[in-house]
Write a structure and sequence with these properties.
Elements: H1 2-27, H2 39-68, H3 78-89, E1 96-98, E2 104-106
Antiparallel strand pairs: 1-2
Membrane topology: Multi-pass membrane protein
Function: Required for the assembly of the V0 complex of the vacuolar ATPase (V-ATPase) in the endoplasmic reticulum.
Protein name: Vacuolar ATPase assembly integral membrane protein VMA21 homolog
């Protein structure tokens, strides 16, 4: 169970850190080729890449979570199954008799 919390904590940190690092890199022109871009283009590119990085981290977390779950077929509840089999073996008809008021009575 601690592995789940560790994966969640790591992906949460990366989800917060990746956009900040991307924005920092574009703002201080750490990445090559950024210095030739106009300030508005840098802002748009850094915001777009930050959003993409968050979505990639979320997708990676979902992928890891899906790999972690066991692949087994769901099994029916044994009590329900026993009751269902017993109800199949019971007779399905009942007799109806008339009472004095004309209404049917199930016996």
């Amino acid at each position: 169970m601690s592995g789940v919390f560790t994966k969640f904590a790591v992906t949460s940190m990366v989800m917060w850190m990746a956009p900040v690092v991307i924005m920092y890199g574009f703002y201080y022109q750490v990445f090559p080729g950024v210095s030739q871009m106009s300030p508005s283009a840098r802002t748009l590119a850094s915001g777009f890449l930050a959003v993409i990085s968050v979505n990639l981290v979320i997708g990676l977390f979902i992928f890891m979570a899906m790999k972690e779950t066991p692949h087994q077929e769901p099994q029916p509840d044994p009590t329900f199954l026993a009751n269902a089999k017993a109800s199949i073996n019971q007779p399905a008809f009942s007799q109806v008799s008339d009472d004095s008021k004309g209404k049917g009575k199930v016996e």
